[in-house]
Automatic annotation (TrEMBL):
Transmembrane segments: none annotated. Belongs to the pectinesterase family. It comes from the Eukaryota. Residues 77-314 form the Pectinesterase catalytic domain. GO terms for molecular function: pectinesterase activity. GO terms for biological process: cell wall modification; pectin catabolic process. The active site is at D229. This is Pectinesterase. The lineage of its organism: Eukaryota, Viridiplantae, Streptophyta, Embryophyta, Tracheophyta. It comes from Flemingia macrophylla. It is found in: Secreted, Cell wall.
Length: 321
């Protein structure tokens, strides 16, 4: 089975979770996946992935020349709260990246809680946030929709292209909405740039955890947690081997609110070999937030918390089609 189109996987990176930062630059490159299909057998996914993501020098002719140049000139910048790196905060490290950046900049982030609201502007592409798999840094902030608006409440906002995150926790520390406080929804991540990838990341929130805003994105081996519409937006994204954990709530719980507005709009969310876990009961896979949502779950495991109806028409019966 093929999902969306082959271009969905054009930007998949080498799985770099286990590489030390000094070796990371050599492996942080982008794959061109031709017409290979994601296997139905979950045990075959890793070998399929490795077979389709080879060294940069084997695929240069198929890639954006600017990307090839950026990866060949990659450098590592350390962010350490104890002062042993070039910077103590992630924001200071990002400020050091020049406007119109043309080189891959890997921000190696030491362990700890980084209480920062972070935004990577569109004019700073090729940035990577990289943590240690066994000691992942936690990027956290308590912004809410009342303060910033929903999409700008996110702890991490990425508007630039070719962004990568590996082994990091992204969380919003605002309390769970209680239905009484206006604007209590709070995002952890907004990803708006094109060709972004997330490996082994844990993303925590309640309502509106991930704003998968627009353009193409790839998530692999991640955990995303929330209550209502905790993956939402108009992205064209593939989620592979990712856990979607729904936190029990007194009201309705929904995993996805996809914002496609017409049959001609090129956006969709595809979940392959994902584990749908959580507490409570009656969680909907997705609701018809707008008129033409496109959401696909394939080869995925669903817990007892999932509503047997699967989908919710958002009180618009005409959207059942």
């Amino acid at each position: 089975m093929r999902y969306l189109s082959t271009e969905t996987l054009v930007f998949c990176t080498q799985d770099v979770r286990s590489y030390p930062p000094q070796d990371y630059a050599a492996f942080l490159d982008y794959a061109f996946v031709a017409s290979d299909e994601i296997p139905a057998n979950k045990e075959q996914v890793e070998s399929w992935f490795k077979n389709n993501v080879g060294p940069l020098n084997t695929r240069e002719k198929n890639l954006d020349p600017a990307l090839v140049t950026a990866e060949k000139a990659a450098k590592v910048v350390k962010v350490m709260q104890d002062g042993s790196g070039e910077f103590k905060t992630i924001n200071d490290a990002i400020k050091s990246v020049p406007t119109g950046n043309t080189k891959r900049v890997i921000l190696y982030i030491g362990a700890g809680n980084y209480k920062e609201k972070i935004k990577i502007e569109k004019n700073k592409p090729f940035i990577t946030l990289y943590g240690e798999p066994k000691n992942m840094p936690n990027l956290t902030f308590g912004g809410t929709a009342q303060q910033y608006g929903t999409v700008d409440s996110a702890t991490l906002i990425v508007e630039s292209d070719y962004f990568v995150a590996a082994n990091v926790i992204i969380s919003n520390s605002a309390p769970k909405p209680d239905g009484k406080r206006p604007g209590a929804q709070a995002s952890a991540l907004r990803i708006s740039g094109d060709k972004a990838t997330f490996y082994n990341c844990k993303i925590y929130g309640f309502q509106d955890t991930v704003c998968d805003d627009q353009n193409k994105h790839f998530f692999k081996d991640c955990l995303i947690q929330g209550t209502v519409d905790y993956i939402f937006g108009s992205g064209k994204s593939l989620y592979l081997k990712t856990e979607l954990n729904t936190v029990a709530d007194t009201g309705i719980t929904v995993i996805v609110a996809q914002a496609r507005k017409s049959k001609d709009e090129d956006s969709a969310y595809v979940f392959v070999h994902c584990d749908l876990t959580g507490s409570g009961s009656g969680t909907y896979l997705a609701r018809a937030w707008f008129t033409h949502p496109k959401v696909l779950f394939a080869y995925s495991t669903m817990g007892n918390n999932i509503n047997k109806e699967g989908w919710n028409n958002n009180n618009h019966p005409e959207r059942d089609k």
